[in-house]
Amino acid sequence: MRQPLSDEKGEMKSLHMLEVKDIHKSYGSCEVLKGISFTVDKEETKVIIGTSGTGKSTLLKCINQIDPPDKGEVWLEGEELTNPSVDLNRIRQKIGFVFQDFNLFNHLTALQNVSIGLEKVKKVDKEKAREKAMKELRSVGLEKQARQYPAQLSGGQKQRVGIARALAMDPAIILFDEPTSALDPELIGDVLDVMKNLAGKVAMLIVTHEMGFARNVADEIIFMEGGKIIESGSPEQMFNNANKERTRQFLGKIATLYGKE
Amino acid sequence: MILLGINNLLNNLPFLFEGLGITIVLTLISVALATLFGILLAMGRCYARQPLPFIIYIYEKIFRGLPLLVIFFLIYFGLSQQGIHIKAFYAAVIGLVLHSTAYQIQIFRSAIHAVPEGQKTAAMSLGMSKLKTIYYIIMPQVLRFSIPGWSNEFTILLKDSSIAFSIGVVELMARGDAINSMNPDGILYVLLFIAFLYFILVFSINRGLNYLEKRYRISGYAATSVR
Amino acid sequence: MQSLPKLLEGVPVTLLLTFVAISAGFAIGLLLALGRVYGKKVISYSCIVYLEIFRGTPLLVQLFIIYYGLPAVGIIFSPITAALIGLSLNSGAYQAEYLRGSIQAIPSSQMIAGRTLGMTRFQSIRTIILPQALRISIPAWSNELIYLLKYTSIVVYIQVRDLTFQAKDIAAQSSRYLETFLVVALIYLLFTFIFSEIVDRVEKHVRIPGIGLSQTIVKRNA
Fold first, then answer.
1. Residue B118's closest chain A neighbor by CA?
2. Which residue from C141, C135, C128 is spatially nearest to C26, judged by alpha carbons?
3. ipTM associated with this complex
4. Fold type of domain B2-215
5. Domain spans in chain B, listed from the N-terminal domain onward
6. Which end of chain B is more exposed for a tag (fewer CB within 10 A), N or C?
């Protein structure tokens, strides 16, 4: 049984680490998210799958408030992120974000990319920050590339630096926005390996098309379409015994495409 | 006749070099101030709330459309008429700064736009405030992107400093004009020498900034759309 | 205010200088740009020398040399002629730079395609490269136009009676510098605005989808 999280007032705020409640988001007259609700717990790995354009990336940006939702609430470790009075800069330190286009800081070396959050946001002493950054780079296998600039790295290396950068902040959860979609096929494997190693150590919410990964690593798979969650469940359940026809249809097609991994 | 001409130049060399000194000082002070204001106002145009961007836009439109001569006359003679007397040198600095800033805003704005949007998103996702994002992530890249356009503006300002002679600043050009008035013999040599001095300055600036660009270049990374 | 007519006498001169200089400058600039891009080493090198000289020295100095300096070797020009020559030569150098940029922005595959069809180099340049390059140049060219409009004011110092010259005269006589030059400022701004509008119209008129840089070549923007 999980311990309920409560604030100083003793009110029970949330049972889960991350809770997303009834998120709605529109761009102009087009409603992209039509009431999304789910939770992620400590050290859980959840994967969101679905056809392109169903608002999966939008959802992630709604969570860390880069592009806040129009309606609905987001709660992290008992704090409401959608509350206007909250200090977003502080909260964002707890949410790691890995981008489809890497978004590494071009003017900084790999090492500096990983350490800058520590130095400037967490105000960690420079030496310690560098040490920790090196440790993270080592954990993603890029120790030797520490002094290289993003422009000199391959796509897969860039993404791993991106992951190291997120890890360095010791976040409560890491959001992955289609982390391998921009990579050449042969580079995808390295990135997925890094992500596999993180499963169970830190909470992860991953938007991806990589079905093999979803099947083998996820604790739960969430299938989204048309701005709504069609179905969610364990990989076992979703791939072999889905409740909804559409789920079976989608996963069936994908399985044929990717072969049963 | 040719010999006479050379004499004119040779006799006036110290006089001319003094003028060169003033030209250099005038240019350096004006460039420093114009760059400072250019960066600040460019950031204002990109990041501040209305009506600030609009006001800056109007400023740009006005000062890019006015001849430097007119600006100088307004500041030096026009204000003097109203009882505000500014020394010629300072009036020249003000005029040059007002004029050049308007162009520098454009240069820095282009550089700011050349930085991919994702850089800002990534920084904010780490928890950086807007200010920190601009200072640690955006600006370092902006400055590198602006070097070509900025160095061009630098040399333009140097050449424009010659117009300061119109309000009595005794820089290099003014001295050439003075020599012409006093003793026009062989003025061609004097003028060619003056042109040569300017040329050397422009050349040095270009060389120096070329070096700067190479030194701070991030290997493999170049602005895709600036300049 | 009564002196407005006298002030306006200078306007035609200013406009004349601007238009002649921009046109002649364009012709000169085009030749220089083509020479630099397509010419053999000797031509290319000579063009570079010309460009370095005219862009490396102030316009004012150039005008002085033409008007005050050349008589020493027997070449004498009237103020207006000297101004036109100086402004054209100077503008030509700056126009050459952005024209070169535009020409070089056209992918070399375009030229190759032309040659494959059997066109001579000259034909390819004329019918394929230039139509595209010129369209790309429009923003930079409009900058140059505004630039020239403003810098014609310098001809005051070689005794040309343009708008600024008239203003100086009037202001000196009446000691009303502030009013006079504010009016002058307004006139220049008005023309700047009109020119920008005209160039905008022309650009829309000749626009071809797909040709045009999303970022202007930033030398100077009006």
1. A103
2. C141
3. 0.83
4. MetI-like fold (1.10.3720)
5. 2-215
6. N
